[in-house]
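Batch job 17 of 40 flagged for manual review because the log was empty.
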Amino acid sequence: MKKLSCMVLGLLVATLSGCTRNTPDTLEGAYGAMQNGKVEPVIKVEKKASGYVFDDYSNGGWRSGSDLAQPVTRDEFEKLIGSPVNGPFIGLKTRVALVAKVQPGFTAGKFTTSTGYLMVFMFGPIELSKL
């Protein structure tokens, strides 16, 4: 009986180890924006031990950010952008910028994103493409 229990337990462990875990979406990665007809690097969301930071692209290289990015709620984002969000949403913000992923086709006033990625800063929203 012990042998059968061990075999069943081993089979269960082997089966469960093959399952993939559903991890929540993150915004980690580099993003670019359309400039002069091509997508140029703009911002990178990086996970460090202390949390997420935004790195900016300047003079051909990435400059590490020091401000920790905080999560943005759907309500905060909707108030800031002035439009409701339908579908999935994830966002991070610092004092200077906000990076978010929304449903592709999201529209707020004259702004529309086909990629679903955007950055909001003092000049308003810009569409991002994941690099």
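Reviewer: the log was empty due to a logging misconfiguration, but the result itself is present. The two ends are 56 Å apart (CA to CA). Unflagging and moving on to job 18.
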